[in-house]
Design goal:
Length: 117
């Protein structure tokens, strides 16, 4: 199988039960828990069926985090890197939610990766 045909089968078994999970926005989590809360991630994927196009999604301890569109390329990179996948599966990676003001004065949210020991 060539490198390109392998990409047709790029599913990852994160081995984490998400059957009862709901989705939470970054805004909702930021307002509830603030900027210092670290959410351990157990996997990530790209939702291509969203209202606004492709969107990053992260598997947290008990729910999904709807990530920003700006992280789609980062999620694609993670999903192609065996070392990054293994670190996530070992529980060594988390995210924090950051808020900032856009040029138009709107409050926006972003995720920052953090290492977890």
């Amino acid at each position: 199988m060539s490198k390109f045909t392998e990409m047709n089968y790029a599913t990852i078994d994160w081995d984490y039960d998400t059957k009862e999970f709901g989705y939470h926005s970054m805004e909702e989590l930021f307002e509830s828990n603030g900027a210092e809360k670290i959410y351990r991630i157990h996997g990530c994927y790209i939702n291509t069926k969203g209202k606004y196009g492709a969107q990053s999604v992260f598997i947290a301890d008990q729910f999904f985090i709807n990530g920003p569109k700006s992280m789609v390329a980062k999620v694609e990179k993670i999903r192609q890197d065996d070392e990054m996948i293994e670190l996530i599966k070992k529980g060594k990676v988390g995210v924090k939610i950051n808020s900032y003001m856009s040029k138009s004065g709107t409050t926006c949210y972003d995720l920052k990766f953090v290492d977890i020991e």
